[in-house]
Amino acid sequence: MAIFDDSALKPGVARREVFGWAMYDFANSGYTTVVLTAVFNVYFIGVVANGAGWGTLAWTLALSASNLLVLLLMPALGAWADAHAAKRRLLMLATAACVATTGALALTGRGDLWLAVAAIVLSNFFYSVGESLTAAFLPELARHEAMGKVSGWGWSFGYFGGMLSLGLCLAYVLHAQAQGQAATDFVPVTMLITATVYGAAALVTFALLKERAQPQRTAPAKSSAWAALVGSWRQAQPYTDFKRLLLCAVFYQAGIAVVIALAAVYADQAMKFSQSETMALVFVVNIAAAVGAFAFGYWQDRLGHKPALAMTLLVWIAMVLIAALTESRPMFWLAATLAGLAMGSSQSGGRAMAGTLIPAARLAEFFGLWTFAVRLAAIIGPVTYGLVTWLTHNNHRLAILATGSFFVIGLALLQRVNMQRGTAAGLNESLPFK
Questions:
Q1: Which of 126-130, 160-164, 365-369 has the largest mean confidence?
Q2: Residue 430: pLDDT above 60?
Q3: Domains and CATH numbers, the chain
Q4: Which residues, 6+ apart, have CB-to-CB distance to 351 below 8 Å?
């Protein structure tokens, strides 16, 4: 644990606790890597949907339904966790539910559309709840000036966790293919591998991570998810730059959501990669993402959150152009590597940037709004991609070019965020809560 620098941590925070927090990113990254990015998405379209022309749109609509649940419920869950000092308790429940529903994906086969949709909707929902709750611990652990560095530790650990799950799955897939097994035989086993790694690694988090918040007995009651959302938004009114960052995040995270959910589909459909080639590609992307997230955490604290995030969006734009225009596999590998570097950096940077703008008394609640923005993006981006492929008879190159517009708009909106003003507002305890 020498990798963790005590000077980056708040007084009273031990390195072992930060290690435990970072291990949650290690635990849950296998879900996004194997289920959403490398394996189950291609399996869903090619096997569960029998290769139908509507398969890509059906996959994106299933993810969108899951993210809609997060939009509706996460603000209420975040407010409840703040009021009852229950982030850790709720994180445990969400983790157990995600592990169970990920395992349920192993039950799906050819034509099992509704079972697959139900399992992906629920597993992605519980994954998202856990992701939001673990982000809300960050400002309790890291000093304000080191938020980017500590966030980068978590993201880099996360990509190593994703590589572990994917590496185990790839080894099994290669063995199964050598035995002549079909995707209906080996893909279900990869779901069980992913669920097992998730559950086992998360045990480290729950053994080491503390609940530091105190119950807020005077917190207003939330009568419904919509009331919680409106209430959280009203609480955020004095924080102009946090709200501007949320709008920026909706757009650039929409582009990232496309890459996470559909990169393997693009490799399969546009570049004609095999299943094992696609998994190897995603493995390399994870290596680049781990390096990018870790190094970027140190760099952004020196350069500043806003210019550092802007640089990653420029890398995303370059990646999209290369991927859409190239017919060459080596150039596509280059685009994938750029995507990995930008993915770890932009997601880590966005989380740290939000953490510097959020008031300490509303961490879980305002990170619920952050999750709202990210999940809204996860609806807009993939559904846009799915609609473009459906309307253009599976033209995936045009769909990825449409994705590039999200990064361009996000870069433009980022320029409206004033970090000096926003940071001062987040630290000003005298600002009114409505």
A1: 126-130
A2: no
A3: 14-212+226-427 (1.20.1250.20)
A4: 135, 138, 151, 155, 370
